[in-house]
Amino acid sequence: MIGIDTNVMARFIMRDDPIQTRMADSLIGSLTVKNPGFLSVVVLVELWWVLRRFYKRPVSQCRDLFEEILRTDELTLEDAPSVSAALSEVNLSADFADSLISALAQKAGCSTTMTFDRSASQHTGMTVLTEESVREI
Question: Most Cβ neighbours (<10 Å): which of 18, 48, 58, 101?
Fold first, then answer.
């Protein structure tokens, strides 16, 4: 297995640099089920951010792409079940990173994830950290 960094996946997907795209294609094309590429959750969070913020891709397109990545046998994802759970929460309001943070915490047995981000608390099941919520812990 070989680890793959965010920039390699971005070149493979966006195809915006001919030389790096060719090299990324060669690497991805060489992967097999017996010798897959590995994508960490950090790479996936960075990739989502790059696609959304730099390339201005819509949430639906990013979600479809990540679901395709999950189905690709030649790629192994760190904690694929949590990635899948996070994708199921992603919509126009919920961010992938927030959804993944919440899914990983749930998997670890956390009753909730505390945040100051009110939007994340509304869309991912996180709890807004307040004076009152601290007393309830």
Answer: 48
Average pLDDT over residues 97-117: 90
Residue tagged 């950090």 (tokens): 42
**Domain residue spans in the chain?**
2-78
- Locate 30 and state its tokens: 């060489």
Q: How far is CA 67 from CA 34, 57, 61, 71, 136, in A?
A: 21, 15, 10, 6, 37
Mean pLDDT of the 20-34 span:
97
E-assigned strand segments in 18-134: 37-39, 75-77, 114-115, 127-128
CA trace torsion 19, 25, 26, 30 (10° rounding)? 170
pLDDT above 70 as % of the chain: 98
Directed axis angle between helix 41-49 and helix 80-89, to 10°?
30
